[in-house]
């Protein structure tokens, strides 16, 4: 009897796998959730510190103008937008709305592009 694993790949190169767009949206949902899990408590602590005094607020305001803080905040804005949009998409699909393959692909593209547009709009607003 032949082994069913005879033709399986010998090594798994994750960078050569082509994921469908629905999988990319779903993986993005998980990544954004992890970013929010770690990022929102940091933002809560920053908010708490900013409310202690005017000098603390000004020091945090100067710190936020650095590129690293800007990238962190931009990532958190993307994460929040993507997580909410993908969550709504998953909930709608759970009740049968948008489940057919063509609609699922369209909604996955819509989630990904809308989250990116929201993040870019926030960056433009911030820099203006």
Topology:
Elements: H1 21-50, H2 54-64, H3 67-94, H4 101-127
Helix pairs in contact: 1-3, 1-4, 3-4
Structure description:
This protein has one domain: Fumarate reductase/succinate dehydrogenase, transmembrane subunit (3 helical TM bundles of succinate and fumarate reductases, Up-down Bundle), CATH 1.20.1300.10. It contains four helices and no strands. It has helices at 21-50, 54-64, 67-94, 101-127. Helix 1 (21-50) packs across helix 3. The mean pLDDT is 88.
Features:
3 helical TM bundles of succinate and fumarate reductases, 4 helices
The helical percent reads over 70%
How many angstroms does the end-to-end distance come to?
69 Å
Overall CATH class? Mainly Alpha
Which structural category fits the helices and strands?
A: mainly alpha
- Gyration radius, rounded: 20 Å
CATH topology: 3 helical TM bundles of succinate and fumarate reductases
- Tally of contiguous helical segments: 4
Structure, briefly:
This protein is mainly alpha-helical.
